[in-house]
Write a structure and sequence with these properties.
The chain is of the alpha+beta class and about 190 residues long. Helix content is about 25%, strand content about 30%.
């Protein structure tokens, strides 16, 4: 075969290999990864939401309603039974609601006021805490909302008298911004 023919055959072969490679790449990119899907299990995959075929947006669940016997006006409402807090602003609008981890000593139901605040201290359980909002004293135990700096919400040791009502760090920041000195705190059952 002459040299010119050999060069043409090589060029055509190279072009064919490139074309097959491109087509193979495109096919692989658009095909589902069945091997990866087969390896996923319920511990490592997140269930996919099915699209809402009605065209309506999915609604988030309604927040827990403010307890009816919690007063009026701007206030913090703390439900002992529900282990939940509501930050209620003007016109009875709930700015935020969240669950908390109660302390071993709880304040009796009633109306209190934020008496002191600390940006960061060590809690009575020895854990570094932030955004401390104190509002009551029961015996010699000070009661207040706080967030652990490490984000934990451990179950309090029942043999110790502690007054820290623990919330998440995000909730603690929201409480700190809302609960200025003198803000009303209503504790309900």
């Amino acid at each position: 075969m002459p040299a010119k023919s050999s060069t043409i055959v090589t060029a055509l072969t190279t072009a064919a290999v490139v074309a097959v490679g491109v087509l193979g790449y495109q096919a692989a990119a658009s095909a589902p990864d069945t091997l990866t899907e087969a390896r996923k299990d319920s511990h490592h995959s997140t269930p996919k939401k099915q699209p809402d075929r009605s065209g309506k947006k999915e609604k988030a669940p309604a927040p827990a309603p403010v307890p009816p016997a919690s007063g009026k006006g701007q206030r913090i409402v703390y439900s002992l039974d529900a282990k939940r807090v509501w930050l209620v602003g003007a016109q009875e609008k709930v700015r935020r609601t969240f669950t908390v981890a109660p302390s071993t000593v709880s304040p009796p139901p009633g109306t209190y006021a934020v008496g002191s605040r600390s940006v960061s201290v060590t809690g009575s359980d020895g854990i570094a805490i932030e955004h401390v909002v104190r509002f009551a004293t029961v015996g010699n135990v000070t009661i207040g909302f706080s967030a652990a700096v490490d984000g934990s919400r451990p179950t309090p040791d029942p043999s110790k008298k502690t007054g820290g009502i623990r919330e998440s760090r995000d909730d603690g920041k929201a409480m700190w911004d809302f609960a200025l000195q003198g803000t009303k705190v209503v504790v309900v059952s």
